[in-house]
Every structure is written in structure tokens, then in C-alpha cells.
Design brief:
This protein is an alpha+beta fold and 145 residues long. It has one domain (3-143). Helices cover 27% and strands 20% of the residues. The longest helix has 15 residues, at 3-17. The model has no long low-confidence stretch (mean pLDDT 96).
Length: 145
């Protein structure tokens, strides 16, 4: 199965819906088949940041929690460059919808060499097709520079 092509097809469709905001895809959409270590948090890649497979495993564990509604990957504005080459589309951040408190959410990013996790608004505006957190859930965003 060509996961990269499936992801790119999905991103093109999402871009057609809202080209003013970066697309958001599921954790599996982004990580399945992705072996390009610098596709997310490239500045920390090779500098102590866990491997892609470890990041994926960590967020799959978060996704399976009873207090988590979903985990999504926010693409970087340059994702479209992957349409013209063989790279994996670049990601900017990871979003978690959860009813957990901020202290619990902070634990999820320990050891990821992230710039932290924040609660609140979509960092660059909400894509029209992005899911909504359920009532009582927060939007947490994990950032890397």
C-alpha cells in the first residue's frame, strides 16, 4: 500500500476545501509508512528527539486513553512541496482533543524535545475540515520550533 500517495491525495482534497489553513490529518494518516525522520521536528532530529516510530507509539498510547477524543497532525505550510518530489509532507505540530487537565497533558510530551504543549485555539487558524473537540474537551497542541 502506498501510504504517501494516500496521504497526498487526502491533503490535496483538504486543500481544495480550505487553502487558507493547513490541513489536519489523523495520526495514522501521517505516520503509517512514514520513514522520513525529518518530516516532523526537523531541527530536533538527530539532536535527541525520539525516532518517528517512537513519536508515533507515544501518541498512539495517548490516543488510546479514555480521556482522549482524538490525536491529529497539523501539516506545515510547505507540505505541497512533496507533490513535486519524493519527500514525505512536512508536519508542524500534533493536536490532541482531551478532557485531561493541562498537567496531565504536559506529561505526554516529556522526552519528545518539543517546545511544549498548549491549550486553546488552533495555532494558525482552524482548517474548515478539521474536527471539533467534544464539549468538555480541550484542544492541546504540541509544538516543535
Amino acid at each position: 500500500m502506498d501510504y504517501r500517495k494516500l496521504l497526498l491525495d487526502k491533503l490535496v482534497a483538504l486543500d481544495a476545501i480550505d487553502e487558507d489553513h493547513c490541513p489536519v490529518v489523523t495520526l495514522d494518516d501521517y505516520f503509517l509508512g512514514n520513514t522520513q525522520e525529518d518530516s516532523i521536528a526537523p531541527n530536533q532530529c538527530g539532536d535527541g528527539r525520539p525516532s518517528l516510530s517512537n513519536i508515533y507509539r507515544r501518541f498512539k498510547a495517548v490516543e488510546s486513553r479514555a480521556d482522549v477524543q482524538g490525536v491529529y497532525v497539523g501539516l506545515h505550510e510547505s507540505w505541497g512541496e512533496s507533490l513535486d518530489d519524493d519527500t514525505w509532507p512536512a508536519a508542524e505540530n500534533i493536536h490532541v482533543f482531551s478532557s485531561a487537565d493541562a498537567e496531565t497533558a504536559e506529561e505526554w510530551v516529556t522526552g519528545l524535545l518539543s517546545d511544549g504543549i498548549s491549550a486553546g485555539e488552533w495555532p494558525y487558524g482552524k482548517h474548515k475540515a478539521a474536527p471539533e473537540p467534544a464539549p468538555g474537551s480541550h484542544l492541546y497542541t504540541v509544538y516543535w520550533d
